[in-house]
Amino acid sequence: xxxxxxxxxxxxxxxxxxxxxxxxxxxxxxxxxxxxxxxxxxxxxxxxxxxxxxxxxxxxxxxxxxxxxxxxxxxxxxxxxxxxxxxxxxxxxxxxxxxxxxxxxxxxxxxxxxxxxxxxxxxxxxxxxxxxxxxxxxxxxxxxxxxxxxxxxxxxxxxxxxxxxxxxxxxxxxxxxxxxxxxxxxxxxxxxxxxxxxxxxxxxxxxxxxxxxxxxxxxxxxxxxxxxxxxxxxxxxxxxxxxxxxxxxxxxxx
Length: 254
Prior knowledge:
Low-confidence stretches: 1-7, 20-60
Distance between the termini: 167 Å
Largest sheet: 4 strands, antiparallel
Structural class: alpha+beta
Number of strands: 9
Radius of gyration: 55 Å
Strand content: 15-25%
Mean pLDDT: 79
Shape: globular
């Protein structure tokens, strides 16, 4: 190799060494700017004071000066009205009413409202057949021999002004149905009326006894007296009957 060749080789060697020193002399190869990850720096969170990592997502949102929109309370839809079935009260009322003779005893039964006002009723009672002159004739004859009878309402039974005594009993629906069935049976079986043997007082006495109520022993009483005594026997603390005279039937107001 001649002198110029040696010189060229020396220069080339020097260039290679310089390049190598520039590449690795300060701590290794030059890092690739596109693939390397910069070192993470810890700084203090200005809001919470907790350290956070630069370049990572902050869990706490930055404060804002915008006013917070108040939450709107939704109105609860109105509850649909509950359909309440009206309470039913069933009753049987033993009554006496005024008449030109010694009065009449009968039964009215049905339903009342919570205030005790009758809203539906029927009448049952034993009395001689017919009205007017026919009814008067059968009534007179019926004091001697049995005469044909009716067991529905008679003239005056539906008029409150003539009522002289009453005793009302409130029943459950089940008991009411049973008692009404018994009343219907008695109406069907009583075909004749007789003042001393099978009269109106005896009819209501039989129904009251079937219900388990206390009744006067005899049915030979004024209708007003019989109903008042039955009420006293079942409602008074000592179950003692006190009525003796028919006040209204005799025109007495005391």
